[in-house]
Amino acid sequence: MQxxxxxxxxxxxxxxxxxxxxxxxxxxxxxxxxxxxxxxxSVLGWLGKERDGASFFLANRLDRETSGLVLVxxxxxxxxxLGRLMEKRLIEKEYLAIVWGxxxxxxxxxxxxxxxxxxxxxxxxxxxxxxxxEGAQAVTVVRPLRSGGEFSLxxxxxxxxxxxxxxxxxxxxxxxxxxxxxxxxxxxxxLRFAAQGWGPDLAEHLCxxxxxxxxxxxxxxxxxxxxxxxAPLPPDLxxxxxxxxxxxxxx
Length: 251
Fold this sequence. Notes:
CATH architecture of the largest domain: 2-Layer Sandwich
Number of domains: 2
Shape: globular
Helix content: 10-25%
CATH class of the largest domain: Alpha Beta
Distance between the termini: 37 Å
Order of helices and strands: EEHEEHEEEEEEHHHEEH
Number of strands: 12
Radius of gyration: 18 Å
CATH topology of the largest domain: Pseudouridine synthase
């Protein structure tokens, strides 16, 4: 089986910077934070090299496959302050997602508590989340934008910040994100990918080598000023849409 090495297709870029923090547009397949082994590239590692070894502190993280905006403090105090804004839900976030199927609503609020499902015959992936009555509150608002054929582009507005929240919520309404190995057509695809890497068989079922989720906007107040950072849909996702006759948004 031919396997492809999944590496960041383009470098990170600084979208916004002030004396306290930066906003980085992270490409897919780039870690937010170095692993313990520290042998894979990350946002913090890239910044340290770009800024002559300076230290930086993540205020939020994205999954390795998710692209888009990451907040990075220039010192621990700024990162903590940004983290508190997130905890208080004072940072507005928007994501773009490509999903299977066509949503017929104009606006949908998904309110479903989430937690770990646990390993079982039905769930082979330890990290997988699902609806748990005793789980943490999780709310996502979804607005469809465009559709064509088997796919739709939508905006997702997470009102809480649970693990894999958008991916799980879209899966439970039967519109999973394209390319999602855990919450897509079969969670066993994740185990096959972990064991064998990416290849034609997975490509046939998943269409994309990563889940089609992009953190496109952050908006919040900082020291009395309204700040907004935007990252347009990256080339792999906009190209996927264009191939299927769906015009991607500018941002």
